[in-house]
Amino acid sequence: EGFHLEIAKAKAAELVQRLGFYKLRAEVEIAEDPAFTVAAAWGPAPRLPDGAIAYADPRLPALGQRILLPAGTSLGNLGCAPAGEDEYHAQRIALGVPEGGRDYAFGDTFPHEAMFDQLAGVDFDKGCFVGQEVVSRMEHRGTARKRIVGVEGEGPLPPSGTDITAGGASIGTLSSVSGSSGLALLRLDRAEEAKAAGVPLRAGEVNVGLRIPAWARLKTPAAAAS
Predict the structure, then answer these.
(1) Contact, 190 vs 163, CB < 8 A?
(2) H helices present in 7-142, as ranges
(3) 3-state secondary structure of 199
(4) Strand 181-187 and strand 201-203: pairing?
């Protein structure tokens, strides 16, 4: 009888309005559903109450399950250790998975930069969509210069928004941070050049190294050209 879309709560009203532009005269209702709250579970499968909807996170198996729980459900009754949002984000950062609004700006980021092509966010076999020509060209020509990848600091990382520099020149921006681990939107070609020249990368005053996720199949523009 319908579909549920799980999205960032702060963007829900905007999405409802946007989808309303396209329903035309179809007899479709598009609205926020207050009956559910969202949870994530990784490790052993939790006990789910009646009315819950659980599905594998479509981005990456290691992220576990996304769960739509009936509003008011106590997490303590699910048979797994409760975790706070900080623990979830630490898990996500360790896996190298970016999140909209934290690691990239909605409406101002190419899908390849946000790793959509690597995390089942783009179907290159489907028909046209807004921006399809640019996305397809970036895919087939390997021209995505910037990517969100993991970084590991030699100490605790500075706040989100700090420039990542190589030899004093900015090559990217730090985004999500959890202790000495983080994610950053970087020019990978510039990072490669710095590595080849023996120039360290820094986030503020902290030396950092790149951490390319094991699931990522990345080609830098230089590699694609060769």
Answers:
(1) no
(2) 12-22, 85-95, 132-141
(3) coil
(4) unpaired
